[in-house]
Amino acid sequence: MGNDVQTTNNRRTNLQILDDKRKELGEGLIKYRHYLDVIPVNKQEQFRNNFLELATQDYLLSIVDTKELVRFASNVTKTGLDISPSSKEVYIIPFDTKVNNIKVMLPQAIIPLNGMQQLAYQKGFLLTMESVFKFDDGSYESESKLSRMQQSYLKTADPEWVDNHFIGFDVVLEDLRKELPAQTKFVDLNYVQEATKTIKDTRWKLQTWRHKAVRRAYGDFMIPKDRKIEAFEEIEALNDSVLENVDTSSGKTLTIENEKALQQLGIKLQKFNGVAIASNFQGKEKYLEEFGFAKNGGNYSIGYEENTKVLPSTHDMLKAKENSTSKTTKTKKPFVVLYAYLSKSMEKDTIKTFVNDVLGLTRDDEEGINEVLADLNLLDMMVNDYISSNPKENNSEEEKIADTLF
What we know:
Among the domains are: about 115-245, no CATH class; about 255-305, no CATH class; about 315-405, no CATH class. About 45% of the residues lie in helices and about 15% in strands. The chain is built from 17 helices and ten strands. A four-stranded antiparallel β-sheet has the order 4-3-5-6. Strands 7-8-10-9 form a four-stranded antiparallel β-sheet. The chain has a two-stranded antiparallel ribbon with strand order 1-2. The two termini are about 25 Å apart.
């Protein structure tokens, strides 16, 4: 009974945090509504609803200023893409770059594979992408063309094997109108790694790789002028413009003494991945400038050493508590811990489907399960996406205990 009460309290707290984020975004939409002028009037209400969905992405809100988010999201929407996370047409992620050796977090847009496929389909093309693997005998091939012998060597569930054998993507563009022959472009792994090296959030690694691979291949495809996929080019131009407009900074880093002084002034700092962003600083900008903060798009930020003490947010403390709970149950099998976590927000009869089909895990894949448990923010996002896109299904089978689910 006590555990049920604690779970209810945790859920209520998470909902309150989400409501606070929605309120913050809603206020930002009102304050910076002039940025919405780039969007047709008849689509602005839909944009507002989609924008509020970003409240589920706390990692983004904690390091990108609301003003910049409104401006950037408006320009992304202008290209015709839906910014709501549930649509999976485009994702807005924090981009880690440096100015005068100081880290600066900026919003960037990446189009996931299904979003790129939808854009291509609207122009009469079928876009597909396959991983290409190199085998120990020197042969290499894309997934759909593997021989039976090559298929027997595949170990895609083993991250180490994939790291040693994955060499890039085959991007294929087929003309549904039959005006052009099918076109295939191989994009080397080294290229996509180099193109995405400053995106530090590993949860987006595969998505950013695919985005850059398709964009690279698209530049080599033969496409009639009237069938160009403008959104590809517009998104890249938007991303580039954000990087080009970064203000230079002083080259200073945050010290513990300065941080304490700012706290006494009532200035709050949010820290993430080497960047501290100031809030509640109205009328106190001169102190930020004296301490070396740089103004980036109306937001003040400064770099800090990673070992500087970070003051956790309420949400961070909740996650820490979850992690602490996981550590105290170290003797439990990873799949039992995962089941216990998922059961707080999902029905028992859907957990197996989610774990097997969405996470691609089995009960014996302890390494994979531990990786999932290490990033509860990402897991929460995936659960929310799954629940929103899959209404509850009745299941007449006997509910199974955790030990038999995976």
